[in-house]
Design a protein that fits this description.
Radius of gyration: 17 Å
Oligomer: single chain
Largest sheet: 4 strands, mixed
Number of strands: 8
CATH class: Alpha Beta
CATH superfamily: CBS-domain
CATH topology: CBS-domain
Helix content: 40-55%
Distance between the termini: 18 Å
Number of helices: 7
Length: 143
């Protein structure tokens, strides 16, 4: 299947190579409207939710659509902690790209939290990052 074993090794690169570093985070007390504004103004679809710099959850734009039909006053009462996915999938920055992609696919999640060697937030790896990695690897194999 693979004529060049280097193709296989490229998929084994650490996920850190394609991780979006230093993601925008929000505290658990953020309102849903604040989160929506953060996503819109920064062009992002996932926000790690933190409590004292520790990731405790994640909110996606899909999560926010659940409450989209509510009145603004009602949205201001709903906090990130009410809607977030608790204990999101977290991986080590050294985990191979193909393993991370497999975990995301099998669990049907759109992003994972990437932690550094000290188990602190390094970045976020999304489906878009996975597609960008695939494109880059495919283009390298054409050369």
């Amino acid at each position: 299947m693979y004529e060049d074993m280097n193709q296989v090794h490229r998929f084994r690169m650490p996920v850190e190579e394609f991780t979006s570093p230093n993601p925008i985070t929000a505290p658990e007390t953020s309102s849903i409207e604040e989160l929506r504004q953060m996503m819109d103004s920064n062009g992002i679809r996932h926000i790690p939710i933190v409590n004292q710099d520790k990731v405790v959850g994640i909110i996606s734009d899909r999560d926010l659509r659940v409450v989209a039909g509510l009145k603004l006053a009602d949205k201001m009462m709903i906090k990130a902690s009410d809607l977030m996915v608790r204990d999101p999938l977290t991986v080590s920055s050294e985990m191979p790209l193909d393993e991370v992609a497999f975990e995301m696919s099998s669990r049907k999640v759109g992003s994972v939290i990437v932690n550094d060697e000290n188990d602190e937030l390094l970045g976020i790896f999304t489906v878009t990052d996975a597609l960008n990695a695939l494109i880059e690897i495919a283009r390298q194999t054409e050369q």
